[in-house]
Request: fold
Amino acid sequence: MIRLHTVATVALLLVFGLWAACGNDPRARRADSELGGSILVSAATSLTAPFTQIGQNFTRAHRAVDVQFNFGASSALADQIVAGNSSDVFASADQANVTKLDDAGLLAGRAAVFARNRLAIVTKPGNPEGIRSLADLPAAGVISLCDLAVPCGKYAAQALEAAKVSVPEGRVTRGQNVRATLTAVTDSDAVAAIVYASDAKGAGARVATVVLPDSKNVIAVYPAVTLKAARNAMTAKAFVAFLRGAKGQRILKEFGFLAPA
Amino acid sequence: MATVTIAFFALPLLALMQRARWSTLWSDLTTGPALDALRLSVACAAAATALSLVFGTPLAWVLARTRMRGRRLVRALVLLPMILPPVVGGVALLAAFSLNSPLGGWLHDALDIQLTFSPAAVIMAQTFVAMPFYVITVEGALSHVDPRFEDVAGTLGAGPLAVFRKVTLPLIAPSVAAGAVLAFARALGEFGATVTFAGNIAGRTQTLPLAVYLRLEADPPAAIALSFVLVAVAVFALVSMRGHWFRT
Reply:
């Protein structure tokens, strides 16, 4: 009896697990003439907060649509897409990873820039180390930067190079994406991090933000594009257009992003 | 059904081997950041294994031999890291030892020690997740040792420590070795707790799994070469485990 019970329980759990795993397959519903169906949007980590809200607004405007997100470092997402793990829309934190997909012949149409972003230094609340500029970073403790393969790491390297500042690699902890880079300051003991201004804004009182003047700053560009492998090209295109529309732009601005140009 | 299961486990490994760039495998492993990560990983995993032996053996003995109150609770506590997501372990270590925590703050103010972002943090994170494997293996062996051997040694005049060293330890030696290998393999593969608690500083806290994950984007062949080291260690652990955890 007990064994039968166990088998039944395990079977039930399995069935439930499969249902939970597959029930929400973004490709399950197909588009019809009206906008509908599911799209999967692969988007840069820094877009997590605004895109979650934009997704809600988009589905409110198009009731038959379901938007799912796959957030990660743009470089990691581009690699996934090249490896065949495709989605409907790719929203990158730089042009390079879009070009990479273009070279691989994976894009449907041209990429459209929908936002830009600045870099900022974040420190512990109250800025106890008194960091005022990039030049103060080499003398501080452990600095958190994005990995060099990730857009935010490349931008930070550009900014540091332009300012002729070099932080010894032995004191740099590298995050897999901008969120991990930020977390090293908010939740661990890194003294400062270079992240996007939007992330600095999102972190609120958990950090102090040191604004980088435009002359010392690097502007990140965010292009979005529909992928050739999209199962739901019409909804995907509508989502990209929505990003550039008034509502999408208002939300992005709220979260600390700059207008496309 | 069994064929499907075998394929499920074999296919990813074969695919990994197929994607490897064999001609440069050796140079990928022995240059720059890969070699640093390899060195750091082996050193830290060895230290974590040593700590597991030193601190895990007495605990295994207490769990197997005494009727201490709360023994079950202690066992559950020690085994928890085996099933806890390692990232959660890392967050817990941060909560206990970061500069913001009372203990971490005191260590810093009184002794000028900062654990986060140090190799010591790597060792702590690895020990946290690996020691339970050692403890559970040795506890199992201890509870199967016939206490009469020890009793006899005691009546012949040996003190408790001498009994443990001369009678108990030789009897459980194979399990001590197996537990140590298992703990070493687990420590070497540790990712989540390490990246959370020790960060990812090249040459200082960037271990093999962290290097694999980050180099996958920058330099896939190097990442795959590093993966092979981890696979090789896992295979070695299983081979040396033969006849211990399972029959062959």
